[in-house]
Design a protein that fits this description.
Layout: H1 3-6, H2 15-33, H3 38-46, H4 49-73, H5 77-87, H6 94-101, H7 106-133, H8 136-144, H9 149-173, H10 175-203, H11 208-236, H12 241-252, H13 256-266, H14 271-307
Helix pairs in contact: 2-9, 2-10, 2-13, 3-7, 4-5, 4-7, 4-11, 4-12, 5-7, 5-8, 5-14, 6-7, 6-12, 6-14, 7-9, 7-12, 9-10, 10-14, 11-12, 11-14, 13-14
Length: 308
Amino acid sequence: MTDASIDAVLIQIDSTGQAILGLVLALIMFGVALDLRLSDFIAVLRKPLAPLTGLVAQTLLLPALTWAMAMVIQPQPSVALGMIIVGACPGGNLSNLITHMGRGNTALSVCMTGLSSVVAIIATPLNILLWASLNPATAALLRQVDIEAGPFLAQTVLILGLPMALGMALAHWAPRLAARLRRPFQIMSFLFLILFILATTASNGRYLLTFLSDIMPLVVLHNAAALLLGWLAAKAIRMNAADSRAVTIEIGMQNSGLGLALILNQFDALGGAALIAAGWGIWHIVSGWTLATLWKRGDARRRREQSA
């Protein structure tokens, strides 16, 4: 498929749609913040090595690795940009569930998700601008969609930072209300991703085979590299098994819903980039669930061997 044709895979969005997408993006971050507690960050101060190692891997190493992969593989510019945007996103809330399923350190996972989400207010737009500008193909694309550093940073920080602050304030001052709202907001974020995938599939059904043959292999490779990076980061400081699982899953499960909303709202719903984010949203659930299942089976096998 040519660059032009794959970038035709998009949902046409008018000014009203852009405003709605901005609101959806703000609601996603508000929902993330409802899960954050000051105690999560106090835990970082008490035992900082594991969560800070995960934060460095997610915020610094994964975007750099994504840029290197895009430079080597050289996909079309919009696809490379989508990889960079997803790689710059913080961990998603599903990582906490998958970590729990895989008998990893769930508290560490929650702590890393909260930490990376707060840091993402600044780190996500900076990483997108930095690494996209260092790839000649995506740098040209930034100019094509008219992304200027100053306004982009200011708007993204506002969209991410304000709802994050409001969500954390609500969780602190009205924890019962926050607990009631948490689940609906998580469901809304997930439905937003699923609805986009369904809408795109319905309106661009002729591109389905290309999505499966051209986009998904890149998503699988990118996700595998992220999971490996998390595992290597954990092993580098000799984490125990539970902590290693948490860090591995956290680095491998990005908040692709946030990435997709950014693409739709800030990058003219560029087809290749949007398909990467949508594909990641599907695949990281599959890969995370598979890892958790393998870990659980391995634990059960070892218990049987010890009791024999």
